[in-house]
Amino acid sequence: MTGDTTTAIPESRSEFTTLESSRVETADRVCFTVRFLPAQRPDAPVVLILPAMAMKAKNYYPLAKALHAQGLSVATCDLRAHGEAIPKLGEHTDFGYREMIETDLPAIVTAVGERFPGAPIHLFGHSLGGQLALLFSAAEPGRIAGVTIIGTGTVFWWAFGPRRWWEALSQIQWIGLVSRVKGHWPGGALIPAPMPGGVMIDWSLHSLTSYYRPSGTSRRYNSLLAAMRLPVLVISLSEDVLGPKSNVDFLVSRMPAAQVSRWHIDENSAVANRDHFRWVQDAPAIAAGVADWITTGTAPA
Length: 301
Hints:
With about 300 residues, the protein is α/β, with parallel strands linked by helices. Helix content is about 35%, strand content about 15%. The protein folds into two domains: about 15-155 and about 220-295, Rossmann fold (3-Layer(aba) Sandwich), CATH 3.40.50; about 155-210, no CATH class.
């Protein structure tokens, strides 16, 4: 399932692409490039970063470097059909949440475990990546030591609050409808980048019902999430309109057995950029808080 590790550093490539890497191939022949920043201590906790919808692993390189500077090992990987993943977007067979959770993440986490044997694996998920991290961890207990999510809330329409109910219902269900008709989301309202149709259909159904019911799965993800007992650090951002605190609160209510720590980042924090995407510009401050929580169990105030 994993390929040979390479440490070659071609001068003509960007700093990110020169990182140590491993090729991972899934049972359905999707290939991923997992990149590593190993800590000095081989048993240091390792953090696997999972991107947001339509984002690439390389966008999180500042976070990866900042976590590494805190003494942690770090791994990065694109989501299926994005970034370095093969087949590329538009060349792939359509897929949804099920393939990412039940096919891709088991292979990727196995590769990380092989690279860092004996080290506890933590998942750091941004937005969609946070949903995938939680659902995978809930479904496969024992594989993950803890989960950190940022900008990750439910997209259930009711959680947005009365002022945004119509906006959430109309825009998200329109994306789902277009994805059914066209077989993909071409980009436009709310989600400007193209996306696989199956992912957006699963996403829109969750928004309508609040249940995680990916097409083709036999798992009852809401029940698994409710029973999950893992440590989870939930980071919300005061200027995040895509994942507002009300939506984050609703998601937290769906995992009552988890050991949840909360970190709400507002104007009183050391983080200047507090919207859904620009928080990466404050990666050192985010990484310091996450690393402290991983190593001590204490969330930033």
